Amino acid sequence: MIHKHEFKAMGCHMLAVLDMPGEDQPAQLEQVPSLFEAWEQSLSRFRETSELSQLNLSAGTPVQVSETLWDVLQESLLSERRSLGLVTPAVLDALVMAGYDRSFNQLAPTSSYLTFDRAPVGLLSEILLDESNRTVCLPPDLHLDFGGVAKGWAADQAARKLSAFGPALVNAGGDIAISGPQSNGGAWPIGITNPFDPEENLETLMIERGGVATSGKDYRRWQQDSVWQHHIIDPRTNLPAQTDVLTATVVAPSAVAAEVAAKVALISGSGAGLAWLESNSLAGMLVLEDGERLYSQRISEYLWS
Amino acid sequence: MQTRPNIKNHDDLKVIITAFALTLTLAFWNIFSSGAPKPVQAAVNVEPIVPQAAQVKILLGGPAPKTTIIVSRSNGAQQQNQPRQNQRQVQQAAPQPVTRTASSK
Description:
The complex is a heterodimer. Chain A has helices at residues 27-30, 32-43, 51-57, 67-82, 92-97, 147-162, 255-268, 270-279; strands spanning 2-9, 12-19, 63-64, 110-111, 128-130, 135-137, 168-172, 175-178, 188-194, 197-207, 210-216, 221-224, 227-230, 233-234, 239-240, 245-252, 283-288, 293-295. Chain A is α+β, with helices and mostly antiparallel strands. In chain A, the strands form five sheets. Chain A has an eight-stranded antiparallel beta sheet with strand order 1-2-7-8-11-16-17-18. A three-stranded antiparallel beta sheet of chain A has the order 3-6-5, with no helix packed on it. Chain A starts with a strand and ends in a 10-residue tail after the last strand. Chain B is α+β, with helices and mostly antiparallel strands.
């Protein structure tokens, strides 16, 4: 029996699914929102009282952090290396200067913010870490935003916790973690939303375990000085990525790995992005601005049709 | 007045006799040269033997021996090598997705 629980967290729609016998909603599902609330209180850059905001304010001073923040910071640093620097938490200042200085549902569709310019960027290599007591010291000009890495990490963690009670799936705003096959042994059918018609699915993926995520510039975007901006920053320019890819969907061993890979494909553009997916043997689909769809070789392992 | 004598042309008769003799000769030739008549068998469909791995046929003679290799697969192996999506297409339509992936919403 598939049980579902929907809620809002981290500024996104969330869905937790548990495959358990019985008609009644499992209590374990009801506890998932509180997990996300705790993680958000630690990882959100939009909450002034969050642990991350306090860390960003304390740049230059060693700060002892929670296990959650420590884990996500480690995951972010790992993602930065795997993506050759394209997915980095060091883009907060660029996001703020692009106008993304508050949670997205508070952004007006058309607003005039700061004059758009390149933001100064600190170097991740200058972060001082002490694992023995989990202390972090940011350089003065570096501020962190975990972005999609935090969502993917949270989806993975929640699915792992739920898997103690049965096959589980957690969708954190499009970043989906799957603990294993359904109790009947079947894969989970996952739809890929059409960015041009959100009510429609472009494809259906059949995934037994791991993660799938979509990164795109189709939704979280806003106008600044009559120019459309979006929230995917290209660290090479420190500006919103100039790319012909509208959305990128990737299947990977975990939700956080899928999120990072999708962002790399999006920022890189269709040619380099698809080549990167192929070179890393990843299953992915790119939807270009003109509506064309590009598939990597391995996506056929997951496509229904 | 004497009637005109009935002059008969024997050419037609010669042709008939020759044709009859020729037909008779061919008939006897056919009977004695074909040996004992074979019983008529009903056509039987014999299943071809599918070689397990590779059938090697060597043609001898001629300037140089040539090897012809016929590779065959059983039906099972062919199905296994087909893409999964093709197998599914013959089954049924895509199932209702449990959830969907999209840009952060």
